[in-house]
Amino acid sequence: MAPLQKRAFYGLAFGIVWAIALVLVFILKGGAAAFDQDAAFRLLIDGLWIGGLIVYLVLFDSIIRRSKHFDERDKIIMDRSARIQWLALLLSMVGWIIGLSEHFHDQRQVPIVFLFLMFIFTLLVSSIAQSVGILIGYWKMGRNG
Amino acid sequence: MADYVISNRIRRLRFDHNEMTQQELADLAGCTRQTIIAIEQGKYVPSLELAFLIARAFHVPLEEVFQFVDRD
């Protein structure tokens, strides 16, 4: 297994744990209404997403800098994974836009807290989709060349 | 569909060069062992730069390592 492929597996596992942790904390602490009012809750969520992002950056950045572990084939796969990332982001934005506009249609406005939640969700989706894209890239290259 | 393939003799050349391992070749060419495996199996066609580096590792001209042949 290529070093980048291994990192993508770790990244996917971490991304899933990270997403579950964020969702669990969010639900257990009272959801969007509590998030809007409780500064400590917001700080906790901030810590979780920023911490997760740092782990992700370290995970992938450390491998890209080592030429012995990251070559032209890995770069091609990594570049191609951006397509999966882009598609996942697009789909998640479509989900958010339809969900929010339908849910808050009668009020004619969306609470500002959802901007922040959209951002965190998009970040999660982007990170997980990158790992998935890399794994799909290795699988496709191994199958078709 | 392209009617040609780029084949290679890397496995043969490794054998001829004192049974050089894939890792040794990867180290000489500056790529990962997995990329050497993929090239040997015909699942990845390297860039011109990597192809030259592989040829240099064997001290042979490029066309002794890679061949441009018709599919049929």
Please render the helix and strand layout as text.
The complex is a heterodimer of chains A (145) and B (72).
Chain A: H1 3-28, H2 31-37, H3 39-64, H4 72-103, H5 113-144
Chain B: E1 4-8, H1 10-16, H2 22-29, H3 33-40, H4 48-58, H5 62-65, E2 66-70
Antiparallel strand pairs in B: 1-2
Helix pairs in contact in B: 2-3, 2-4
Task: Give a written overview of the molecule.
The complex is a heterodimer of chains A (145) and B (72). Chain A has 145 residues and is mostly helical. Helices cover 85% and strands 0% of the residues of chain A. In chain A, helix 1 (3-28) runs antiparallel to helix 3 (39-64), helix 1 runs antiparallel to helix 5 (113-144) and helix 4 packs antiparallel against helix 5 (113-144). The radius of gyration of chain A is 18 Å and the shape is elongated. Chain B has 72 residues and is an alpha+beta fold. Chain B has helices at 10-16, 22-29, 33-40, 48-58, 62-65; strands at residues 4-8, 66-70. Chain B has a two-stranded antiparallel sheet with strand order 1-2. In chain B, helix 2 (22-29) packs across helix 3 (33-40) and helix 2 (22-29) crosses helix 4. Chain B starts with a strand and ends with a strand. Classes of the chains: A mainly alpha (145), B alpha+beta (72). Chains A and B meet through helix 4 and helix 5 of A and helix 3 of B.
Rg of chain A, alpha carbons:
18 Å
**Sequence of secondary-structure elements of chain B:** EHHHHHE
User: What is the quaternary state of this protein?
Assistant: heterodimer
> Unreliable segments of chain B (pLDDT under 50, ≥5 consecutive)?
none
> How many beta-strand segments of chain B?
2
Helix content of chain A: over 70%
Strand order of the largest sheet of chain B: 1-2
User: Quick one: how many beta strands of chain A?
Assistant: 0
Q: How far is it from the N-terminal to the C-terminal residue of chain A, by CA?
A: 16 Å
Calculate the mean pLDDT score of chain A and round it.
89
- Given helix and strand content, the structural type of chain A is mainly alpha
The SS-based structural class of chain B is: alpha+beta
* Total helical segments of chain B: 5
Order of SSEs of chain A: HHHHH
pLDDT under 50 segments of chain A (min length 5)?
Answer: none
